[in-house]
Amino acid sequence: MRGRKGSLRTVALADSGATTSFVPVEIAEDLGLHLTPGPRAGGGGGDFTTFDGEVQLEVLHHGRVIHRFPHLPISVPRSAGRIPYVVLGRDSIFRAFTLTFEERRARLLLRRARK
Questions:
Q1: Integer Cα distance of 38 and 115 in angstroms
Q2: CA distance linking residue 29 with residue 59, whole number of Å
Q3: Could you give the C-alpha distances from 73 to 20, 31, 58, 61, 104, in angstroms and in order?
Q4: Domain that holds residue 84
Q5: Per the structure, how many domains does the chain have?
Q6: Are 85 and 21 in contact (CB under 8 A)?
Q7: Global pTM value
């Protein structure tokens, strides 16, 4: 992920139940993302208020970039600790790839989505 203050590597949850992609406020602050007041959001942890923003996101496989989102819209919970990690929702990773979860092999397969 990249922002005005730099970049960082982190893990993310691919969540087919999430309409939007989320970034924890702590990461948004570290990256220096420009945030504006956003709507309320809800999930397993309940309802919360958000900021809207965008981030540059690169999806890596073995350290190699396999996809870039140059202007990924994100929601950021206004309070710390609301979400523990980045959540990639249907507005991002699920539009770029077909995802297959192989539970028995404990792996996630990404295949470029057809247009």
A1: 30
A2: 21
A3: 8, 15, 14, 22, 33
A4: 2-112
A5: 1
A6: no
A7: 0.90
The CATH number given to whatever domain includes residue 37 is 2.40.70.10
Give me 62's structure tokens. Answer: 């073995």
| Contact predicate 20/89, CB 8 Å | yes
Integer Cα distance of 15 and 94 in angstroms? 9
The alpha-carbon radius of gyration of the chain (Å, integer) is 14
Closest CA to 19 of 97, 98, 75, 61: 75
67-71 LR contacts (CB < 8 Å, sep 24+) = 67/96, 67/97, 69/96
> What is the C-alpha separation between 100 and 73, in angstroms, rounded?
24
User: What stretches of 32-98 show up as alpha helix (H) in DSSP?
Assistant: 93-96
| pLDDT in single tens digits along all 115 residues of the chain | 999 999 999 999 999 999 999 999 999 999 999 999 999 998 776 899 999 999 999 999 999 999 999 999 999 999 998 898 999 999 999 999 999 999 999 998 999 988 6
Query: At residue 71, what is the residue type?
Result: H
How many whole angstroms separate alpha carbon 110 and alpha carbon 61?
10
